[in-house]
Amino acid sequence: MYDVCVERPEDTPEVEALYDLCFAPGRTALSSYRLRDGVPPVSELCLIMRSTAGGITAAIRYWPVRIGDALVLLLGPIAVHPTAQGEGLGAWLMVENLDRARAMGWARVMLVGDAPYYSRFGFEKLDGVEMPPPTNPDRVLGLELRPGAWVDVSGPVERETRPDVLAGLAEIVETPSLHADCVEIDPERRGAGAGPM
Ligand SMILES: CC(C)(COP(=O)(O)OP(=O)(O)OC[C@H]1O[C@@H](n2cnc3c(N)ncnc32)[C@H](O)[C@@H]1OP(=O)(O)O)[C@@H](O)C(=O)NCCC(=O)NCCS
């Protein structure tokens, strides 16, 4: 069993340590990190999974980015502790959090990752969407959360700096219910939902 919670500032060092453990050294030099510089994350979608023993076992974060005028969710990083990989935790976070994003009204999501893993969640290669170099175009993947949301969306992916979008995200961070009680989940009961959080 795990507690799923929205990441709080005090969780951040532990989440960073998990990412350091799970990714190759130099991960923050990747071009996708430049899109996150100085931009607040989409807080209500940044989740941690804490085991009953206490440590953070998995984490997922999201940032806003834009392509032309289109607002896009950038998924990642997502990581599961090596001792718990292959138990369905990654899939649970993907499925439940994408449902949450859809319910929040997000239209489209993208990531840079391995198609053999993410295709099982419906992600497909995004032709015409350009991540800052050097990024392998075959790893630029997208998913529609609303039908047709990727139609006619192409071009370079840029940092989201529009004041109205950033103000909306900041408002959510200050919502008291955001950091309400964590929800206990059993990943084997996928689809049961994480309840209000
Ligand atoms: C990728 C990751 C988040 C998946 O989480 P997880 O909890 O281990 O995954 P699940 O248990 O939901 O799924 C396991 C399945 O995914 C497959 N899988 C895991 N990573 C994969 C990859 N990079 N490419 C293809 N398949 C992958 C496993 O082989 C397994 O396949 P099976 O169902 O056929 O046995 C996790 O392995 C991880 O943290 N890896 C290191 C960090 C990383 O690469 N993050 C993603 C960045 S793009």
Brief overview:
The chain is an alpha+beta fold. The protein has helices at 12-22, 31-34, 89-104, 115-118, 163-173, and strands spanning 2-6, 47-51, 56-67, 70-80, 108-112, 124-125, 129-130, 140-144, 155-159, 183-185.
Percent of residues in helices: 10-25%
Q: Report the C-alpha radius of gyration, rounded.
A: 16 Å
Tertiary shape: globular
At the fourth level of CATH, the homologous superfamily is Gcn5-related N-acetyltransferase (GNAT)
Q: How many structurally independent domains?
A: 1
Stretches where pLDDT is under 50 for at least 5 consecutive residues are 191-196
Secondary structure category: alpha+beta
Instruction: Tell me the series of helices and strands, N- to C-terminal.
Output: EHHEEEHEHEEEEHE
Beta-sheet strand percentage?
25-35%
Highlighted features:
single chain; 197 residues; alpha+beta; Aminopeptidase; ten-stranded mixed sheet; 5 helices; 23% helix; 28% strand; globular; disordered C terminus; binds coenzyme A
